Amino acid sequence: MRSNGFESPLRSMKPSEERLTDPMRTLITSAGELSSPTDGEVASLVILRGADLQPPTPIGPEGLIVGRSPECGICLEHDSVSRLHFSIEPCVAGYLVRDLGSTNGTFINSRKIDRALVQNGDLIRIGQITLKFIQGAAEGAYHEELYRLVTLDPLTQAYNRRHFEQELAREHSRSVRYGRKFSLILFDFDHFKEINDQFGHLAGDAVLKEAAAQIRERLRRDDILARVGGEEFAILCPESDLDGACHLASDLGELIRKLRVIYEGLTIQATISLGVAEWSGEDETPDALYQRADRLLYEAKERGRDRYCR
């Protein structure tokens, strides 16, 4: 049985005979009780504290592994988390958590465990990070909506600036640790005040909303689009060098140039200017990279707009 690219650790560990009789404490189970749940209930893990907010992660029939490795089902880039920290898998009695020999241990409701069943609402602490185990579609939907409210711009459904800054810092840390490359694109709409003055602010909002939707269709799954100002946006491009990011910037400029937004019978056109920068190495901080891309954006405007600079 495999889980998220790893051989499942659940089949290789020794069973424990320990039992708990206190109903307020976590039940210890044995390997003989493992099997697939039959009730079809929805279960997931959600981050509560210590790490950037993520949407609830479903626990599938093969379970998942949580740790610092990018191959984990939940990857937590934090020094207090081991590369493979713990696993969680469905069993006949519910869901079983196993510590995978982590440095700082795995705790359920403040109790250190090697292997234990979890119940709805239990807290799982690893290092400085706390996760919550949830069951049921309603609570999962609640946390999903909370994630959307906290991370998304309500107009464009792009990520908001706060979430973008978190993702930029995370990608910087990941690239320093694993020797990866990444690039950043900043762009804003040319003469956007004229669009608002001529057609009205609601029409301007319609342009931003439609443009963001079109841009999302062009991006890769791992690219991150965020609204970082009124009409200014950023795109984080993991695993992309400068040439790749410039190719994307060129495509986006052409996409917006051809875009026609119809608002109350009026046709609105727009263009964008873009600044493109590749991270230069671990001596360059996320803020320094952002400022460099911002300078290139304004260089594009000074050169006549409707273009990108690198």
Key phrases:
6 helices, single chain, 310 residues, 30% helix, 6-stranded antiparallel sheet, disordered N terminus, alpha+beta, 5-stranded mixed sheet
SSE topology:
Layout: E1 2-3, E2 6-7, E3 43-49, E4 57-58, E5 64-67, E6 74-75, E7 86-91, E8 94-99, E9 106-108, E10 111-113, E11 115-118, E12 123-126, E13 129-135, H1 137-151, H2 161-178, E14 182-189, H3 192-199, H4 201-218, E15 224-227, E16 232-238, H5 242-258, E17 261-263, E18 266-268, E19 272-278, H6 286-302, E20 308-309
Parallel strand pairs: 5-6, 19-20
Antiparallel strand pairs: 1-2, 3-4, 3-13, 5-7, 7-8, 8-11, 9-10, 9-12, 12-13, 14-16, 14-19, 15-16, 17-18
Structure description:
With 310 residues, this protein is of the alpha+beta class. It contains 6 helices and 20 strands. The chain has helices spanning 137-151, 161-178, 192-199, 201-218, 242-258, 286-302; strands at residues 2-3, 6-7, 43-49, 57-58, 64-67, 74-75, 86-91, 94-99, 106-108, 111-113, 115-118, 123-126, 129-135, 182-189, 224-227, 232-238, 261-263, 266-268, 272-278, 308-309. It has a 6-stranded antiparallel sheet. A 5-stranded mixed sheet has the order 6-5-7-8-11, with no helix packed on it. A 5-stranded mixed sheet has the order 15-16-14-19-20, with helices on both faces. Helix 3 packs across helix 4 (201-218). The chain is elongated, with a radius of gyration of 24 Å.
